[in-house]
Fold:
Amino acid sequence: MKTLIIVPAYNEARSIGPLLRELKREGPWDILVINDGSTDDTEDVVRGSGVSWISLPLNLGIGGAVQTGLRYAREKHYQIVVQVDGDGQHDPRQIERLIQPILRHQADAVIGSRFLQKTDFRSNWHRRTGIRFLQFLSRLLAGQSVTDCTSGFRAFNEKAVSHLADHYAVDYPEPEAVISLFKQRFRILEVPVAMRSRKAGRSSISGWASIYYLYKVVVSMVIEFIRSPHE
Amino acid sequence: MSNISLLSIAGSVASFVIIVVLTRQRKIREQYALIWLAMGCLILVFSVFRSLLDPIARFLGIYYAPSLLIILIVFFGMVLGIHFTIVLSKLTENQTKLIQDIGWVKHRLDQLEKSGGAEDTSKQAVPGPEGPA
Structure:
């Protein structure tokens, strides 16, 4: 099956090189990096790595970057698309596991979940509370429990790509996409994955910012839920 | 005529003039100028003919008629704020599509340059926001 790995990258010059090498080693897939208006050397690193890339002139944020990749995939008729974040948190060795349910026609979208199995993923109590709350909310809004709806480690089949290429949320894309897919009756499945700690840079979400993030995610999920279908 | 009446007349005339000047200098599109001018007119009329406010205020149960003017202004500000949010959202959406298309065009251009312009480009149109037309 024609598979494309989408790698959104914003200022990931330090981690993207090793990631791309690893991705190329792991599978026979095509790789597309979306350089999301980086101000560091990300573009040069990607250019030298020999993979396909699209460089956005301005920073759109993760949602806009991923959507660019989805539009590319639809245009080129890829049958499977996997999103792998440019910061190296997602382990390329687990992509195979992610696309299995799609190959077996069990799901249209697969989410790599950190919380499906007990792992050594460390987090503090307020983070766990936030995670629990999002699980509760996704069950409430989507009728199906999604343990890790903020995970950006995902795989989609052609049908889901075609839908998301037009309707991908730009602001807080991961949880919103889950709701959007549910509303369109796509089958979503989670598989357990272990994520690595970041190789470089810091998580964009910590401390008080995490409460604000939770607020934004919750509002965006509810809005996506009540939103009228796109024309 | 009370001081507050004079002040609000002066204020509405001033804002009227500012809007007209900005529109003349093409710093405001007519579309938005219309809203502002309508608002300016309304305030001006109520400032000059304060008695017009009284029956409305009485009907609404407002004891001090000029506070109706304040309510009107606040309400207008809110409507305008919502209107601007709609405009901004639309602009942001358009900008996103443009940025994505520029990225795509640059990608195609880069591929073309690499292949020395020999590759056929006729089939590859830029995908529109709702997919290839």
Chain A has eight helices and seven strands. Chain A has a mean pLDDT of 87. Chain A has one domain: 3-226.
